[in-house]
Design a protein that fits this description.
Layout lengths: L3 E6 L2 E6 L10 H15 L6 E6 L10 H14 L4 H20 L4 E5 L2 E3 L1 H6 L4 E5 L3 E3 L12 H8 L1 H8 L5 E2 H7 L4 E3 L1 H15 L4 H19 L1 H15 L3 H13 L1 H9 L14
Parallel strand pairs: 2-3, 3-4, 4-6, 5-7, 6-9
Antiparallel strand pairs: 1-2, 7-8
Length: 283
């Protein structure tokens, strides 16, 4: 099953999340396809910019808990917890997503609908984020069973205090608030999102490729010196694994095996009245 499709339009490569019925949740196939496609694009001198977007009602609703909770339940019965095994597994996803940041071509994310949990690991690695009015961001796994794989991305986007406010609660961030905080560069009508993102990507692609590569390198250098992404990614991935093996994390997985992952997420979010439990969520 394909999770990502590439479409080139002139000097812009569109990477399109293409599992709309599953809200483009993250599966191993997406990790592998994203990594391979970015490597190929980075080596392709015809392409100057990458636009990451999605089909369906959501950009990305995070990791597919149907397979990931089931995998952890099986692992828990078959072997002792190995933090290095977790780090290797989680780190493979973080490394793939990080290529949106480290590749030598500008990356733009066009976000609509849900962009939560692991979906933020994808979007926040892009150089520029545009969103539609329907976009909704957040990291609800911080309430139980997860830590952002790269916490520095939150601090770099919205500052330390705001990152604390939203990661210490897991609260939902609507599109307009995301723009106010600086989590995204711009919020536009959903109907205009693709047009606006394509226009920006094509405008960037007017520059010579060597200029774009040099500009990305010098700007990334500033971010790397300020935020130490490598250490942030290591700690984020390590503690993401630890969070899955706390007493509460194990209880979460056991509960999911009893009532299903959709219901266990609803139970997690019910005290906060947001995401799937909000009155205006339509679900």
């Amino acid at each position: 099953m394909r999770a990502l499709r590439r479409e080139d339009k002139g000097a812009v490569a569109h990477l399109i999340l293409c599992r709309p019925d599953e809200y483009n949740t993250i599966i191993p196939t997406l990790r592998d396809e994203l990594s391979a496609m970015i490597d190929a694009i980075d080596a392709d001198d015809r392409i100057k910019c990458i636009l990451l977007r999605a089909e369906g009602r959501a950009f990305c609703a995070g990791f597919g808990l149907d397979w990931s909770t089931a995998d952890q339940a099986v692992e828990a019965k078959s072997r002792a917890w190995d933090s290095m095994h977790d780090l290797q597994g989680i780190g493979a996803y973080a490394a793939a997503f990080s290529k949106l940041h480290t590749c030598l071509k500008p990356t733009i994310a066009a976000v609509h609908g849900w962009c939560v949990a692991g979906g933020t690991d994808l979007a926040l690695n892009c150089d520029i984020i545009l969103c539609g009015d329907s976009a909704s961001f957040g990291y609800p796994p911080s309430r139980v069973w997860g830590i952002p794989e790269q916490p520095w991305l939150w601090v770099a986007r919205i500052g330390l205090q705001a990152a604390r406010r939203y990661l210490l609660t897991g609260d939902q961030i609507n599109a307009k608030e995301a723009a106010r905080l600086g989590l995204v560069f711009e919020c536009v009508d959903d109907d205009l999102l693709l047009q606006r993102a394509e226009s920006l990507a094509q405008r960037i692609a007017i520059l010579p490729l060597n200029q774009l590569r040099m500009l990305k390198l010098v700007l990334n250098d500033v971010a790397h010196r300020a935020y130490d992404p490598q250490t942030s990614r290591l700690l984020g991935c390590l503690f993401d694994g630890v969070a899955r093996h706390t007493e509460e994390g194990i209880d979460f997985v056991n509960r999911a095996s009893q009532v299903g992952w959709r219901e266990v997420i609803r139970e997690r979010d019910r005290p906060f009245a947001d995401y799937g439990e909000s009155l205006d969520s339509g679900s």
